[in-house]
Amino acid sequence: MVNDAVKRIPTGNTQCTIVWIGGEVYVEKVKIDSTKPFVIFYGSPNMPMLSFDGTAAKFGTVDSTTLIVEADYFMMVNIIVICVEDARSMYDEMTVKGLVPDVVAYTCIMNGLCKSGKVEEVKSVSREMEEVGVVPNHFSYATLIDSLFKNGNEAEAFAFQGQMVVRGVGFDVVVYTALMDGFFKAGMPNDAENMFQVLLEESLVPTCITYSALIGGLCKLGNVNKGELMLQEMKEKCVSPNVVVYASIVDGYTKKGLLNEAMNVMKKMVQRNFSPNVFVYGTLIDGYFKAGQQGIALDLFKEMKSVGFEENNFVIDSFVNNFKRSGRMEEANELLKAMMSRGLVPDRVNYTSIMDGFFKVGKELDAFDMAQEMTENSSGFDIVAYNVLINGLFKSGKYESESFYTGMRELGLVPNSATFNTMINAYCKEGNLENALKLLNEMKSYGLLPDLIIRNILVQRLCAAGEIEKTMDVLNDMLVFGFHPTPTTHKAVLDASSKSRRADVILHIHNQLVGMGLELSLSTYNTLISTLCRLGMFKIATLVFKDMMGKGISPDIITYNALIQGYCLSSHLKNAFSVHSQMLTEGVSLNVETYNILLRGLSAASLIKDAAGLVDQMKERGLIPNADTYDILLSGHGKIGNMKECIKFYCEMITKGFVPKTSTYNVLISCFSKGKKMSEAKELMREMQVRGLSPNSSTYDTLICGWYRLSK
Questions:
Q1: Coil, helix or strand at residue 606
Q2: What does pTM read for this prediction?
Q3: Which neighbouring-strand residues pair with 26?
């Protein structure tokens, strides 16, 4: 906490003392008395906030404020100080007296609550505002939209944007900046950049904050080159950049692993009279640690100290993560203790990183201890820390999801997207799809959306359970939020629908998915053709193939292999080899799987004797037979009793380092048994066990029958 850091400043201090404050909300009343001069509060670029719910009625006019400074030579940088409760109590007093605050007063209240992270209260004030007939202005909407995006409530933010349009409330540079920043946070970069273009078309002048949001968003997405172009545009338009803009570009290059470029940007900063701050140094230190270049990271750390910067929570977290990557969690813990002994107070991020590290090395009890220490020494759990806790415990497989969901509620935490994603994933793993779907609906009620991975997991689990109808309902619901079925979704749903073994059902589901916005790509057609061919429905697969060609989509090796497999499964070997010939004529590059499918077809038809030419052709084309090739050849010859070829391919297979399957060994054992060579058959079973394969019931049945025949 900030007060703990202030307490460690010696009485009668005569040297400049910097208190580094990480980017979160600190709910406490801070006082710096007259015996502690020369103090600087330095906040991270994402602007930490000091907030205290004190009122004049409770503490007196002077002592109700959040920050009291009695010392000389105090300075504060990058920190927002809020005293929300006085404003709120004044607002309550107005309403009790029947007076209606104007739009400016309402907006100030909402702004203060937003900065204190009280988003639910912001929405409550917004509703009260509407009820008394006060129409929000563009500042009100900008405040609401910005806070909702920062809290991850994209759907509600978009709703307020729509409300502005309907009511004819004009968009100014502040609103456009909030929307642009929000679109980036919601993973909609194209919309964010379009918003910037609209701002320019409206003849509005972007501010440094606007460019900072744009450059920050671009760099987080890895588009650092465009970020640098925007920085150049700032100079051309005489908009002075700030350290945050440069820090974003350094961060962008660092995240892409382009550390030389990141260092060059820092050098440019210095040339243009911008001093790199501790966060620029911290970003580079973290980047070099991640790249395994610990020497350069430590040199940067020494340079940072030499220019007067002390390590802050962000830099400490870089060291912690470096230890975490190599599983050196005891050293990370020792670093935390050393950090505290020097007066630097660990923040939630530091505690959360170490807790996460302990989980990753399987030390759940140490992770629990860290969680307890975090509760006692910092401002307690936030939703990110809680997400790490539940995710770590779920992975250990020792805890039920329901108890943690209840615990989160008891702590007064509002779940975010990561929470819901973790919980839905946990329920899916437990097979509790009913609760997973309930959580999905609750997630939507918060205006949150599941990520792509969780959507796919949920769809796959529902499909595996045969719940096609519920799967389609989930996909329909996702349409409202602009999510369309992906090729992964398409494959999962078609695999599930193929269990019906009905072409009409499969095609109906496919058409439904196309109607939901599934792109008719080569991948989509390959999935449909493969599904039909796998079921032997080659006639319908051929019609789909023609439809694909008619749309100008050229087949690839996957398409042709699927068709060949369909013909082979339907015992239409002539058609299968016709497709093979067509591939050769058209110059399609055949692969090993193409030949394996054809060989499998010959084996099934007991025509493996005709395989020699095919194997020769395969080798002539530079393709090397794999384990599957040998399994097919060996099994095929075994089925027709061709012992000589069986042994030949078995020896060749072993020589090349391949291990036959249990089923292949069973074919060989059967051949020896039928030839009354039981000693050789028994030796083969022993050999397969040496190679790590377990005999199955078929192995034993074959041997028992062989010994019985030998005894007659």
A1: coil
A2: 0.53
A3: 50
Q: What is the DSSP string of 534-566?
A: HTT-HHHHHHHHHHHHHTTPPP-HHHHHHHHHH
Rounded CA separation 636/634 (Å): 5
Compute the average pLDDT of residues 408-418.
Answer: 74
Q: What is the pLDDT of residue 508?
A: 92
User: HEC profile for 623-668?
Assistant: CCCCHHHHHHHHHHHHHCCCHHHHHHHHHHHHHCCCCCCHHHHHHH
Pick the most confident of 346-350, 432-436, 547-551.
547-551
In 64-121, beta strands by DSSP E: 67-69, 75-77, 80-82
182: DSSP letter: H
| Sequence-ordered strand ranges (E) for 160-273 | none
Q: What is the mean pLDDT of the chain?
A: 82
Among 51-60, 185-194, 220-229, 593-602, the range scoring the smallest mean pLDDT is 51-60
Residue 96 structure tokens: 């009790």
The DSSP code for 97 is T
Residue 506 and residue 495: Cα distance in Å, rounded? Answer: 9
What is the per-residue pLDDT across 554-581, written as a single tens digit (0 to 9) for each?
A: 999 999 999 999 999 888 899 999 999 9
Strands 75-77 and 39-43: parallel
Strand 25-27 and strand 67-69: the pairing is unpaired
Tokens linked to 599: 């060989």
Given strand 49-51, what is the order of strands in its sheet? 25-27, 49-51, 80-82
For the segment 157-196, what is each residue's pLDDT rounded down to a tens digit? 788 888 788 888 788 888 888 888 888 887 788 888 888 8
Return the axis-axis angle of helices 383-396 and 401-410, rounded to nearest 10°: 160
Burial class (CB in 10 A: 0-12, 13-18, 19+), 482: exposed
At residue 331's C-alpha, the angle toward residues 327 and 334, to 5°, is: 145
What is the structure's pLDDT at 269? 84
Sheet holding 75-77, edge to edge: 17-21, 39-43, 75-77
49 bridge partner residues: 25, 80
Across 122-143, average pLDDT: 78
Q: How far is CA 365 from CA 225, 352, 384, in A?
A: 45, 15, 19
The answer for residues whose C-beta is within 8 angstroms of residue 670's C-beta and 6 or more apart is 638, 702
Residues facing 67 on adjacent strands: 30
CB atoms within 10 A of CB 709: 12
Instruction: Work out the number of other CB atoms within 10 angstroms of the CB of residue 209.
Output: 16
CA distances from 661 to 219, 229, 696, 697 (A): 51, 59, 11, 14
Residues in the chain: 712
Query: In this structure, are residues 212 and 248 in contact, taking their beta carbons and an 8 Å threshold?
Result: yes
- pLDDT of 411 higher than 80: no
Q: What are phi and psi of 76, to 5 degrees?
A: -135, 135
| Mean pLDDT across 37-41 | 82
Does residue 345 come out as left (phi exceeding 0), alpha (psi in the -120 to 50 range) or beta?
beta
CA distance 176 to 168: 15
Q: Whole-angstrom Cα distance, residue 571 to residue 426?
A: 44
Percent of the chain topping pLDDT 90: 11
- What does the angle CA 543 – CA 544 – CA 545 come to, to the nearest 5 degrees? 90
The secondary structure element, H or E, covering residue 300 is helix 294-306
76: β partners:
41
What value does the mean pLDDT take over residues 309-330? 83
